[in-house]
Design goal:
Layout (H helix, E strand, L loop, with lengths): L1 H32 L5 E9 L10 E5 L10 H13 L4 E4 L16 H5 L8 E3 L3 H4 L4 H10 L3 E2 L3 E6 L5 E6 L10 H5 L8 E4 L6 H4 L6 E4 L8 E2 L3 E2 L12 E5 L2 E5 L17 E9 L2
Parallel strand pairs: 1-14, 2-3, 3-4, 4-5, 7-8, 8-9, 9-13
Antiparallel strand pairs: 2-14, 6-7, 10-11, 12-13
């Protein structure tokens, strides 16, 4: 009986030790390891409306850096190096640069880093909710201007290739704290032109799908930031809906939701590795 009891207690003790080890290991991974990983996700976007001169052109998307003490300037430099190593033709940033713009102490250090991003056909950005929040609207505008980014706020820009053919990049203001206006942004865009729309919140696809938009690129969700096996995200922010990670087809519009690079609220990521996405345009003409 004593032997059985001793054996039972050893098993219980072993289970407790294992549980503590797993808990500590999971905490350490989610706090210190996964937030510093970066996955380079490659996606091919095929569409007959893509002009032949844009065939095999590359677009790099990054999002939701949430610069703060847990995402320092030194890490932003690493992001810039990774993106430049992919040699994209176009770079887009889909919002939430700083976690709290009016409380961020290293604002003057951001632009010199972002300015190092190289894209021959241009660098484009939109507002996220954190960019407007904390009285950050003008701060964000100024940083992007100094970084040589074209900030699109309910407007479209035409990207023209060497043979005169073109595509459009369109930017919608943030849904939560901005004033998004699809009519204003798209009123000069020809329906037959290949059009990419940048919208911070993926749930904006419910409006975008009513227009002639081929591809919407979004962020905001952080891929859930913390997910559990067989359960999924523990929390997703407003205007995420069911679109929290990856590629979706919503009627005639393709939606891609980038997991972002930083964290907010809690400095943890679990089963939601930070992401930089590289899209290759392929014409099916």
């Amino acid at each position: 009986m004593n032997v059985s009891r001793r054996s039972f207690l050893k098993k219980v003790f072993g289970f407790v030790v294992a549980a503590v080890a797993v808990s500590f290991g999971s905490y350490s991974y989610a706090r210190y390891i996964e937030p510093r990983r970066i996955e380079i996700v490659h996606k091919t976007i095929k569409d007959f409306q893509i002009p032949k001169s844009f065939h095999n052109m590359k677009i790099a998307q990054f999002s939701d850096t949430h610069l703060h003490e847990h995402f320092p300037i030194s890490y932003l430099k690493k992001v810039v190096e990774i993106i430049n190593s992919e040699r994209p033709d176009i770079i887009v940033f889909t919002g939430d640069l700083m976690d709290e713009p009016n409380r961020y102490d290293e604002i003057n250090e951001i632009a010199p880093v972002l300015k190092e991003l190289k894209a021959p056909l241009g660098k484009f950005a939109i507002f996220g909710n954190h960019d407007h929040g904390g009285y950050g609207t003008e701060i964000y505008k100024n940083v992007l201007h100094l970084s040589d980014f074209n900030l699109l706020q309910n407007e479209a820009t035409r990207i023209v290739s060497h043979d005169g053919s073109y595509i459009y990049i369109v930017g919608i203001d943030d849904l939560m704290l901005g004033r998004p206006n699809w009519e204003l942004a798209l009123n000069k865009v020809e329906k037959e032109a290949y059009t990419i729309l940048l919208a911070h919140e993926p749930g904006s696809i419910h409006q975008t799908k009513n227009y002639s938009v081929n591809l919407q690129l979004s962020g905001h969700s952080h891929g859930g930031q913390i997910k559990l096996p067989f359960i999924g995200p523990l929390y997703t922010p407003p205007y995420t809906d069911e679109f929290y990670e990856g590629l979706y087809q919503v009627e005639d519009t393709t939606l891609y939701v980038n997991r972002g690079l930083g964290t907010t609220r809690l400095p943890f990521r679990f089963l939601s590795v930070p992401e930089i996405t590289i899209f290759t345009l392929v014409t099916s003409r």
